[in-house]
Design goal:
Largest sheet: none
Order of helices and strands: HHHHHHHHHHHHHHHHHHH
Number of helices: 19
Mean pLDDT: 84
CATH class of the largest domain: Mainly Alpha
Distance between the termini: 38 Å
Shape: globular
Strand content: under 5%
Number of domains: 2
Structural class: mainly alpha
Helix content: over 70%
CATH superfamily of the largest domain: Clc chloride channel
Oligomer: single chain
Length: 422
Amino acid sequence: MRAGLVDAEDWRRRLAMLTSAVVIGILATLFAWAANAAQRDFAALATRERYVPLVLTPLLFLMIAAVTRSFAPASRGSGIPQVIAASRDPGGETTAGLLSIRTAFAKLALSIAALLGGASVGREGPTVQVAAAAMTQVHRLFRVRVTPGVLIAGGAAGVAGAFNTPLAGIAFAIEELASAYEQRVAVLVMGAVMIAGLTSQGIAGEYLYFGQMTAALPLRVVLVAAPLAGVVGGLCGGLFSRAFLILRGPSGRWSPLLRKRPLLTALLCGLIVAGIGVAVGGSTWGTGYAPTRQLLEGAHGGYAFGPAKFFAVLATSVSGMPGGIFSPSLAVGAGIGNLLTPLFPGEQSGAIVLLGMAGYFVGVVRAPLTGVIILSETTGTTSAILPLFVACLIGDWAGSLVCRERLYHALSRDFMATSSPD
């Protein structure tokens, strides 16, 4: 009798994981379509009416901040810190608020609205939170206990579905979401990631996020370019994390002042983002996917793109609106890499940009293995894996010199006991 109950519970757990992973794959794909459509619509409007963003963007920042504050405060920011916080107490009240159905839908809607207003946000962080929420709700539906492994698997599946990169989801779970990685969690993660990734690929087709990249660097160039990109990109990434934590972190010097005036902060941040976007011809709007892909393909971009995108992402993040920094960080890294391209032959510019992306991204998120796998999977390149490893490892070290705390883990303290169930 007892064996039968154990078998039934085991099957419920398997069905819950299978159902969750399929749902996550579908949600990630639909969210990507909606987010891309919102970004295209805003770019088209900004092209037709150049100065409209100076009014539209600040107003949308203000409205999104007001809705977030009053309706779903747990949806603010990236989404990854929320999953880290929830995994510390999966059965507690904090998790009930951070991963509720209302928070998940608010995260989706407000992130799309942010892109519709030109905010410099990504959809990967929000996908992680929504995926963890979906995993939680489905497990409760099947009457299966929600454990830290369940939340980690959900978040990892979200990364896989957002980037169409299953291996990156596993790496991200190991480096960022799991503080103690156990064998049982590994099985959950790999199963959820693969099913979510296959579901996403089945709907959207097999595609490379940044397109196929074939450029390779000779060894003598790698010995210079990879360390240089790692140091420069890592230092800049660490600077972003430190500035973000000072302005908005749980113990940040300026955080109490900005939190006292959340709507005014959002309005001013919107004005900054709008001003930067208009000044550089719109390249900083949204995720930064299009200019990043162009730079990877060897097109010459303006050298102002990297610094402009850096400040646009920082201002958007400080505003507190829902939205991630994964894709925007890769875009800033591409701009940093572009600043290094004059030091090398023109035909190597795409590969140098890729190394800049690696150094900066890891300097921000401090997850070198994830950086290597994401960039190799999203560009389909195998020839650059060794240089990517060098740039990521050095970028991780350089970022730690500027900002000792890991960004997502520092921000997760903000959500440890602030949310309540809906």
